[in-house]
């Protein structure tokens, strides 16, 4: 899935996260994660984000995350929502996202 | 409702009463209502406004939270609301003006500081790496040399004055970088202005033309430039634009000198030139100073050539007058854009 336009999903409230995606100006995937719990759970958050993007087949663009201590499935859902909005995708194979 | 707070998004024009209510709240934070805010997010508790944030295109300003709610989750809800409103309006790359002591609060909104005028104001953006990646792109255009010049043109439209400025700067520099202001706040579109600059300096060997950006004389870095109201000339706002130039753009391209035309007529630009010397050369900064070179304005018939004079003549369809102020490339564009007026004016001029 290709990010073709800018999009956001989520909020800045406690236990949530704000995900911003944008088409990058090169063919790399640039992921920036800022989290209030980065010291304790940074590795885990990065893994969930990377896996979710991989399942969506996103290999380029920019993904900026401001995390407020969200649980894994919230992270997954917000990243999916932002990418789907940014890809303006009509068709979606939900099975691939689980 | 799950809380005592109600958020509302209002158009500034439609709700003068709500905006007046926010004035007291802002005053308590040493802020005033910014008249250029198009959309407000207000948070109400009962009939009282307890928090507000304003949006002027892609710039967030006038954020205030009542004393007793500071440090609560209210600020983060306010941040979420204003970011969502901006996204609905199509703005995804956001800037935010804040007083320096609130920097940490806005870090929580996902904003990162770009430059700060100590004690006065800090400009933040909603990405930790956007300006760095912009500078990486610029760095690819870097040229070697001991004297590297730069000029930033709005070129509305490109005149012989602009050409003279770039020619004389390029003659003294190893390489000359020219930026065209990207903001669509002028009579001529960015695409047209850019094309005219490109055509107008094509004959100068050691010059590159660069796209403008949000970081160089834009609504975000220098709102006053586009408002052109003397009252809006604000020391700290020009400082933000100039500090970004000194701390990010100049180092990326190795710029040592910034060139600017003398400006006797336009008070905003004239003030900008004066501040340029202050912020690029003298003010304390982590980056090296950039020397400011004022080039005397080129003149025709004894008066300085200005783009505003060209626009004025265009209103009267005076192409004979315009032809003395602009290069052939700009003249051809203007005639092409106003063919009817050009023909009429040509006929009229011939009779005189």
Characterise the protein shown here.
With 98 residues, chain A is α+β, with helices and mostly antiparallel strands. Chain A is built from three helices and four strands. Chain A has a four-stranded mixed sheet. In chain A, helix 1 (38-55) links the parallel strand 3 and strand 4. The longest helix of chain A has 18 residues, at 38-55. Chain B is an alpha/beta fold and 352 residues long. In chain B, 41% of the residues lie in helices and 22% in strands. Chain B has helices at 16-27, 74-88, 103-107, 130-139, 160-172, 190-201, 223-227, 235-253, 267-282, 307-315, 319-322, 328-337, 339-351; strands at 5-11, 39-45, 48-56, 59-65, 95-98, 112-117, 121-125, 148-153, 175-180, 207-211, 257-261, 291-295, 299-300, 303-304. Chain B has a seven-stranded mixed sheet with strand order 1-2-3-4-5-7-6. Chain B is globular and about 65 Å long. The model of chain B is unreliable at 345-352 (pLDDT under 50). The chains are: A alpha+beta (98), B alpha/beta (352). At the A-B interface, strand 2, strand 3 and strand 4 of A face helix 2 of B.
Oligomer: heterodimer
Shape of chain B: globular
Strand tally of chain B is 14
Total E-strand runs of chain A: 4
Radius of gyration of chain A: 12 Å
What is the mean pLDDT of chain A?
91
* Strand line-up of the largest beta sheet of chain B: 1-2-3-4-5-7-6
The major beta sheet of chain B can be summarized as:
7 strands, mixed
Please write the string of helix (H) and strand (E) elements of chain A.
EEEHEHH
Short description:
The complex is a heterodimer of chains A (98) and B (352). Chain A is of the alpha+beta class and 98 residues long.
Furnish the topology, listing elements before pairings:
The complex is a heterodimer of chains A (about 100) and B (about 350).
Chain A: E1 7-10, E2 17-22, E3 29-35, H1 38-55, E4 61-67, H2 72-87, H3 94-97
Parallel strand pairs in A: 3-4
Antiparallel strand pairs in A: 1-2, 2-4
Helix pairs in contact in A: 1-2
Chain B: E1 5-11, H1 16-27, E2 39-45, E3 48-56, E4 59-65, H2 74-88, E5 95-98, H3 103-107, E6 112-117, E7 121-125, H4 130-139, E8 148-153, H5 160-172, E9 175-180, H6 190-201, E10 207-211, H7 223-227, H8 235-253, E11 257-261, H9 267-282, E12 291-295, E13 299-300, E14 303-304, H10 307-315, H11 319-322, H12 328-337, H13 339-351
Parallel strand pairs in B: 4-5, 8-9, 8-11, 9-10, 11-12
Antiparallel strand pairs in B: 1-2, 2-3, 3-4, 5-7, 6-7, 13-14
């Amino acid at each position: 899935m290709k990010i073709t336009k800018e999009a956001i999903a989520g909020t800045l409230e406690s236990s949530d996260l704000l995900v911003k995606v944008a088409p990058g100006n090169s063919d790399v995937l640039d992921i920036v994660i800022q989290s209030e719990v980065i010291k304790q759970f940074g590795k885990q958050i990065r893994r969930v984000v990377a896996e979710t993007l991989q399942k969506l087949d996103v290999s380029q663009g920019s993904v900026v995350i401001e995390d407020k201590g969200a649980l894994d499935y919230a992270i997954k859902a917000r990243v999916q929502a932002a990418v789907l909005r940014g890809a303006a995708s009509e068709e979606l194979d939900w099975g691939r996202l689980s | 409702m799950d809380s005592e707070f109600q958020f509302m998004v209002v158009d500034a024009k439609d709700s003068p009463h709500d905006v007046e209510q926010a004035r007291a709240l802002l005053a308590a934070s040493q802020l005033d209502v910014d008249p250029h805010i198009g959309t407000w997010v207000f948070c109400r508790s009962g009939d009282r406004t307890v928090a507000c944030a304003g949006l002027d295109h892609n710039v967030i300003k006038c954020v205030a939270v009542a004393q007793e709610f500071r440090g609560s989750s209210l600020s983060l809800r306010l941040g979420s609301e204003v970011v969502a409103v901006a996204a609905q309006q199509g703005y995804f790359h956001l800037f935010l003006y804040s007083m320096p002591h609130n920097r940490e609060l806005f870090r929580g909104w996902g904003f990162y500081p770009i430059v700060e005028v100590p004690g006065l104001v800090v400009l933040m953006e909603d990405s930790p790496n956007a300006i760095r990646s912009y500078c990486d792109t610029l760095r690819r255009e870097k040229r070697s040399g001991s004297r590297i010049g730069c000029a930033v043109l709005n070129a509305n439209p490109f005149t012989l004055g602009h050409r003279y400025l770039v020619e004389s700067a390029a003659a003294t520099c190893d390489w000359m970088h020219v930026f065209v202001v990207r903001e669509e706040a002028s009579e001529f579109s960015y695409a047209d202005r850019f094309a005219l600059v490109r055509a107008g300096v094509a004959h100068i060997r050691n010059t590159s033309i660069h796209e403008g950006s949000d970081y160089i004389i834009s609504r975000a870095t220098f709102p006053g430039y586009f408002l052109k109201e003397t009252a809006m000339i604000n020391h700290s706002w020009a400082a933000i634009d100039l500090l970004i130039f000194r701390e990010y753009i100049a180092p990326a391209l190795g710029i040592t000198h910034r060139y600017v035309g003398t400006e006797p007529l336009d008070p905003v630009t004239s003030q900008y030139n004066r501040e340029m010397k202050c912020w690029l050369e003298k003010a304390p900064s982590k980056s090296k100073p950039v020397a400011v070179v004022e080039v005397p304005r080129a003149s025709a018939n004894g008066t300085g050539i200005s783009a505003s004079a060209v626009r004025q003549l265009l209103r009267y369809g005076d192409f004979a007058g315009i032809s003395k102020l602009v290069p052939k490339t700009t003249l051809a564009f203007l005639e092409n854009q106003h063919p009817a007026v050009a023909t009429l004016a040509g006929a009229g001029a011939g009779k005189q």
